[in-house]
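STRUCTURE:
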């Protein structure tokens, strides 16, 4: 195991104006000072440990760290779909800090290995592990393999996705579910539920479970109103098995539309994050978060779109909507959600403004519908064999 012997001092909190806040000092001690410990020996951070005297429990920070237990290792983060685009940029950004070991959970082992190498990631900063989200057996196998590695799990990032805007007919996962929802939502739903146990066991100061959302799944935005609009209806297609035989291949029971299936899957991702938060945040202290990283118009997500779209989409986003963001910048944003102490709040859908400052964004009515989130959870549990 690539564990690094360096001290992470325990994070403590100060009460300020009646609110529990992580202090800048402590933020630096946990997440920044660590770097100096790593490169220059541990003395620099030991001083900080001694300086800390009082602790106030806060969600997102676990008991081991609050009791002053030193964490003698890097954080371990699993990133699904780290072989390209946002996942790769995030893996690189985290690996470069020297504070994280990245498990690149990818369906194409060789592609991921080559991507990590050409991104210049140091060999000891990552491990590629096979995960095909289009197969629930593969998800279970991944969890088994991960546990065999005996690494702790500190953060899980559900990032992988497919987008099939030009598909005229549905394709299906190994378990017979429409592919976009099967991969983007159901595969991640099973993975996140299984790995929750591992996150609970982690002694890392801040444990997080992050699921990618998007603006196009939110109908309270202009982008979310570009047809076909996302909408889950009463979930009758999903409840019927999403298999295109005895039920529709679409969650709402309608005719197949590849672009809508992707946007629907993103609503599922955002609803799932909030349901995780409601069910488990208080009990576990784990931070659950979602985000819209900006429009990363150059990634492989658009590989199945028509060539004219792929040509015009980046300049359209860069110069007209001004929503464009580079892969590198989006990677820095997601890396913040993974490790920045100021983004520790749970249940939040993060976005970034023009100056690349993060803020808590509003979800659409449907993407924040608690009754729908519960129903989605219950139906999904059955489809992935958890209930
Ligand atoms: P990419 O296509 O570049 O990356 C998607 C990743 O998912 C790839 O690594 C891909 O693997 C992997 N993947 C696809 N299918 C599976 C599967 N069955 N099992 C395991 N991994 C799989 O897209 P982005 O980087 O743009 O997308 C990343 C995330 O960001 C997605 O969740 C997307 O919804 C979200 N997002 C993207 C936006 C954008 O503008 N691009 C905007 C908002 C959100 P492989 O390399 O083998 O194909
Ligand atoms: Mg959109 C106004 C701002 C804005 C933003 C931030 C996006 C993001 N888009 C915007 C506007 C528009 N788009 C407008 C006005 C149009 C009509 C010309 C438009 C069109 C459009 C298409 C055809 N946009 C798209 C597509 C896609 O195929 C992409 C998509 O929906 O993928 C699911 C897409 C996107 N626009 C975005 C973002 C972030 C996407 C891509 C991916 C995603 O949501 O994950």
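SEQUENCE:
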């Amino acid at each position: 195991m690539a564990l690094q012997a360096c001290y992470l001092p325990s994070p403590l909190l100060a009460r300020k104006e009646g609110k529990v806040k992580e202090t800048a000092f402590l933020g630096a001690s946990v997440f920044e000072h660590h770097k100096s410990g790593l490169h220059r020996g541990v003395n620099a951070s030991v001083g900080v440990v001694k300086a800390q005297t009082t602790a106030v429990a806060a969600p997102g920070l676990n008991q081991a760290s609050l009791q002053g237990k030193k964490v003698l290792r890097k954080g371990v983060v699993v990133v699904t779909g780290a072989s390209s685009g946002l996942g790769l940029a995030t893996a690189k950004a985290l690996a470069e800090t020297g504070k994280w070991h990245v498990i690149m959970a990818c369906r194409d082992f060789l592609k991921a290995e080559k991507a990590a190498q050409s991104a210049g990631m140091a060999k000891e900063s990552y491990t590629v592990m096979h995960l095909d989200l289009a197969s629930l057996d593969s998800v279970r196998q991944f969890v088994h393999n991960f546990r065999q590695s005996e690494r702790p799990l500190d953060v899980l990032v559900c990032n992988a996705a497919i987008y099939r805007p030009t598909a005229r007919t549905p394709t299906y996962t190994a378990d017979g579910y429409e592919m976009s929802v099967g991969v983007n939502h159901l595969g991640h739903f099973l993975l996140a539920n299984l790995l929750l146990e591992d996150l609970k066991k982690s002694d890392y100061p801040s444990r997080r479970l992050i699921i990618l959302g998007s603006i196009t799944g939110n109908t309270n935005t202009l982008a979310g109103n570009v047809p076909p609009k996302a909408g889950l209806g009463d979930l009758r297609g999903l409840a019927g098995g999403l298999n295109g035989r005895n039920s529709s291949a679409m969650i709402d029971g309608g005719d197949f539309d590849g672009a809508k299936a992707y946007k629907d899957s993103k609503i599922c991702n955002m609803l799932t994050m909030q349901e995780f938060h409601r069910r488990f945040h208080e009990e576990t202290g784990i931070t659950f978060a979602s985000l819209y990283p900006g429009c990363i118009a150059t990634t492989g997500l658009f590989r199945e779109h028509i060539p004219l779209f792929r040509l015009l989409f980046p300049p359209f986003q860069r110069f007209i909507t001004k929503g464009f963001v580079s892969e590198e910048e989006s990677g820095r944003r997601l890396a913040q959600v993974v490790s920045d102490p100021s983004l520790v709040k749970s249940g939040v859908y993060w976005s970034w403004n023009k100056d690349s400052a993060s803020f808590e964004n509003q979800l659409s009515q449907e993407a924040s519908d608690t009754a729908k989130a519960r129903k989605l959870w219950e139906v999904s549990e059955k489809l992935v064999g958890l209930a």
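REMARK: Residues 80-81, 83-87, 106-108, 111, 131-134, 159-162, 183, 212, 214, 292-293, 295-297, 299-301 surround NDP (ligand 1) (CB under 6 Å).
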